[in-house]
Specification:
The complex is a heterotrimer of chains A (125), B (222) and C (538).
Chain A: H1 15-36, H2 43-63, H3 71-96, H4 104-109
Helix pairs in contact in A: 1-2
Chain B: H1 22-57, H2 59-66, H3 71-96, H4 100-130, H5 146-183, H6 192-216
Chain C: H1 18-22, H2 27-55, H3 66-102, H4 110-132, H5 146-150, H6 155-182, H7 195-226, H8 240-274, H9 281-294, H10 310-338, H11 347-370, H12 372-378, H13 382-412, H14 418-445, H15 459-489
Classes of the chains: A mainly alpha (125), B mainly alpha (222), C mainly alpha (538).
Bound molecules: copper (II) ion.
Chain lengths: 125, 222, 538
């Protein structure tokens, strides 16, 4: 019934590829734990996430065969990540640009009393 | 669809009536699983967004709170899950070759590793409980704003809990696949259940690959 | 072309008995199951609306207590949004038509399709349980911290009900996407597909990408209530506005789940009843996808006064305007299709016109709301209520009824009575506008939503609105009665009573169990009406 998709015959990945990927993943796990004990400042988070991203990509590409999969599946994987980025990114545009007054979370824990005639949204002023 | 007797005599045993070939059927199955995994990305995405918002707002409290997680169990569990992904991939490989014995063996290994993960996770939760890390009236933590630390542990329990729930679902379905494999259902032409199961299993592994650094490894050096 | 008898064997009479319905995997029967279920939910949701409009006929809060009123609008919203509007066109017409339009025997995963209905029903039962055992008063939006810390009603149960029903949405969307990708008949390329398929694909994208987020968000609310894991708890430094971000990440696109399938229905109807190919087919097709994608970038316009940053509010406001572009493309192209078409004003076409009218008013007032300055003035007033009812009730239900009438002969093999059909449309159209147009004015004058007492000067408009609601209620009953009547007494329709194009009209009505005698082969674009000159039009 399908028209343009019948081309994909299954691609058999040689076994040693799986073992190689496994070894890399284990080494990366060890590395990420070790790196966490060094003080890299804000780059600790960057390093941890880069390693996680690298590991995840290996799993997706080789264990999940996306490297050999039809374009459509690659598109879906990228689409999922793109939508995750939309959610993370656009939500953060709000939090990164809030002034302290606009931050209800910090209000609870700061001792500074709010000005008497405080208008809750800066939009009005 | 087995109840529908079609007139075609040469109908392969596992072919559903609305498909023309097993190959088409298996492509449809794996596309379906991929679409499902996309929804899973966004399902976990809601939690990752909450995590990102609070971690960027309370970096210090999160750093201190995360040092209370049991890193040894977290790291061992990462290794356990990665190994289970390997055995799962090998099970898919074996089933595509029609090797029934090694399919069963690798699936069993995957199940045992997955179960090990859950047992270790259970032990870790018990330790967390005894250290008063469960949010609520009994929560205690010195050295930081306890509310913010509680926020960290709320996220920790929600994220690892939902991940564990995915593991439990995966293990249950794996039992069915294992049963089918033992019965000899799979062949080079028909093994898409193993393949689709594998996709799900690797995905759950990937979620943990991100949870581990995000929850256990924040500023360990402090 | 028309025959005097129904086809001897069709999907309705191949098997009999409850078992053959409750265990069916036939997408057409599953459509009927959904049709019955959502009609029930519509009636329940409508009953709540009736009580509210009765109470609002007088300025005093005299019919029900404050608590009851809060529960009324909450349950009205929850049931209408999650258990009627979201599944309305996709689960019924979508289920029935997608496999037929792609020329397949069934959807890609028939068992999953049946499971979706069970999951939906289970979620509905949970929510009804919450309703019977005391109700919910948090509003359908479940805003924290009220829903998590203050409300002592059945928020947890209702949230879990929606959580469960969400999986039904996800699985339905998944099924449709895979069906459209993989099950198309030979020759049916993407650009030969009817526009209904394009719009269902776009809606499925939203199902798949948006629904998991509302599921996890409501789960977090439930976890906060039951397990005291305070994700949104201000006392621990949690941010209630974060809840609103996550909630509207789904709930803004959800509006397009309701309206984009309706746009697909309208495209089919407009083409069939003006005997023309849809003007600018490609633009209309891509504008569905554009709406689905852009719809995910604008959720912050619900948060303008919630305390988000000024800069982010500006960006959300700007992005919200962009959604108007693909929407306007559609309205423009439908109108252009009518130009020099041989138009016939059958009931489905009237509903399509109704849709275009309501959607235009609802869409334009949406632009008012996207503007920061006006939004702050009318936030949480009846202006907002009127706006989204024009889109969701005026738009989505008009399209739903139009589609139901258009494909009714295909689904049942019988025609509805045309005169009654027109009467039903006129009643619904007048009743609807009389109900909701006064609410724009009320809102602009400052009447807030979710209150049941108001100053006496608002009474005239409120009485008008309540009067309109009673007309609207009668308007919904008329089709219910004559559609049921037509099941037995309606004239036999024959395979293609409208002389319409499309694969679903090439098979008998009602269709056989496997839809087609042989797998169809498609050789022409959609709506190839130019070569049809002589066909009779009802
Ligand atoms: Cu919106």
């Amino acid at each position: 019934m399908a028209i343009e998709h019948t081309e994909t015959t299954e691609h058999v990945v040689p076994k040693r590829v799986y073992y190689t990927i496994f070894v890399i993943l284990m080494v990366m796990t060890y590395t990420t734990v070790q790196v966490a004990y060094f003080d890299l400042g804000r780059f600790n988070a960057v390093a941890a996430l880069l390693i996680a991203f690298f590991k995840a990509s290996l799993v997706v590409l080789f264990f999940m065969h996306v490297k050999y999969a039809p374009k459509l599946i690659k598109l879906f994987v990228l689409g999922g990540l793109f939508w995750l980025a939309i959610m993370l990114g656009i939500t953060m545009t709000d939090y990164m640009t809030r002034t302290p007054q606009e931050f209800p979370m910090s209000r609870v824990n700061t001792v500074q009393p709010l000005p008497a005639a405080h208008v809750p949204t800066a939009l009005l002023g | 669809m087995s109840e529908i007797a079609t007139s075609e005599a040469a109908h392969p045993a596992h072919l559903q009536h609305h498909f023309d070939s097993l190959q088409e059927q298996s492509q449809v199955a794996s596309l379906g699983m991929w679409v499902f995994l996309v929804t899973e990305i966004l399902f976990f995405g809601g939690m990752f967004t909450s995590y990102l918002v609070y971690r960027s707002t309370y970096p210090d409290a999160f750093a201190i709170a995360s040092k209370h997680t049991v890193i040894l169990i977290g790291a061992v569990n990462t290794a356990v899950l990665i190994t289970s992904s390997l055995t799962m991939a090998l099970a898919v490989f074996a089933s595509s070759e029609g090797n029934r014995k090694s399919t069963v063996n690798f699936l069993t290994a995957t199940w045992v590793l997955g179960f090990t993960f859950l047992v270790l996770k259970g032990i870790e939760y018990t330790i967390d409980f005894h250290e008063h890390l469960v949010p609520g009236a009994g929560f205690q933590m010195a050295g930081t704003n306890p509310g913010h630390a509680e926020l960290f542990f709320s996220l920790y329990f929600i994220m690892t809990g939902i991940h564990a729930l995915h593991m439990i679902i995966g293990l249950s379905v794996l039992l069915v696949i294992l049963y089918m494999a033992r019965r000899g259902d799979f062949s080079p032409e028909y093994h898409s259940p193993v393949e689709v199961m594998g996709l799900y299993w690797h995905f759950v592994d990937i979620i943990w690959i991100f949870l581990f650094p995000l929850l256990y490894l924040i500023d360990r050096h402090r | 072309m028309s025959t005097a008898v129904l086809p001897r064997e069709n999907y309705l009479n191949t098997d009999y008995g409850l078992r053959s319905w409750f265990l069916t995997t036939d997408h057409k029967r599953i459509c009927i199951l959904y049709l019955l279920t959502i009609t029930l939910f519509f009636a329940i949701g409508g009953a709540f609306a009736t009580v509210m409009r009765l109470d609002l006929a007088t300025p005093a809060a005299d019919l029900v207590s404050d608590e009851t009123y809060n529960k009324m609008f909450t349950m009205h919203g929850i049931i209408m949004v999650f258990f009627f509007l979201v599944p309305s066109i996709p689960a019924t017409l979508g289920n029935f038509l997608i496999p037929m339009m792609v020329g397949a025997k069934d959807v890609a995963f028939p068992k999953l399709n049946l499971a979706s209905w069970y999951i939906f029903t289970a979620g509905g039962c949970f929510t009804l349980w919450a309703l019977i055992s005391g109700g919910v008063d948090s509003g359908w939006t479940f805003y924290t911290p009220f829903s998590t810390l203050s409300s002592n009603t059945n928020v947890t149960l209702a949230a879990l009900g929606i959580f469960i029903a969400g999986f039904s949405s996800i699985l339905t969307g998944l099924n449709f996407m895979v069906t459209i990708h993989r099950m198309r008949a030979p020759g049916l390329t993407w650009f030969r597909m009817p526009l209904f398929l394009w719009s269902m694909y776009a809606a499925s994208l939203i199902f798949v990408l948006g629904t998991p987020v509302i599921a996890i968000t409501l789960l977090l609310v439930a976890a906060e209530r039951v397990l005291h894991l305070g994700i949104f708890d201000p006392a621990r430094g949690g941010d209630p506005v974060l809840f609103q971000h996550l909630f509207w990440f789904y709930s803004h696109p959800a509006v397009y789940i309701m309206v984009v399938p309706g746009m697909g229905v309208v495209s089919e109807i407009v083409a069939a009843f003006s005997r023309k190919r849809i003007f600018g087919y490609t633009f209309v097709a891509f504008s569905s996808l554009a709406i689905a994608i852009l719809g995910f970038l604008v959720w912050g316009h619900h948060l303008f006064v919630a305390g988000i940053s000024v800069y982010s509010a500006l960006v959300f406001s700007l992005l919200s305007y962009f959604v108007a572009i693909p929407s306007a493309i559609k309205v423009f192209n439908w109108t252009a299709t009518l130009y020099k078409g041989s138009i016939s004003f059958a009931t489905p076409m009237l509903y399509a016109f109704g849709f275009i009218w309501m959607f235009t008013i609802g869409g334009l007032t949406g632009l008012f709301l996207a503007a920061l300055g006006i939004d702050i003035h009318v936030t949480d007033t009846y202006f907002v209520i009127a706006h989204f009812h024009y889109i969701m009730v005026g738009g989505a239900i008009m399209a739903y009824l139009g589609g139901l009438h258009y494909w009714w002969p295909k689904m049942t093999g019988r025609l509805y009575p045309e005169g009654w059909g027109k009467l039903g449309f006129i009643t619904v159209f007048l009743g609807f506008n009389l109900t909701f147009f006064p609410q724009f004015i009320l809102g602009y004058m400052g009447m807030p939503r979710r209150y049941h007492a108001y100053p006496p000067e608002f009474q005239t408009l409120n009485v008008l609105s309540s009067a309109g609601a009673s007309i609207l209620a009668i308007g919904y009953l008329i089709p219910l009665v004559y559609l049921l009547w037509s099941l037995k007494y309606g004239p036999i329709a024959g395979p293609n009573p409208w002389g319409a194009k499309g694969l679903e009209w090439t098979t008998s009505s009602p269709p056989p169990k496997h839809n087609f005698e042989t797998t169809p082969i498609v050789t022409e674009p959609a709506y190839n009406y130019s070569e049809l000159e002589e066909t009779a039009v009802v």
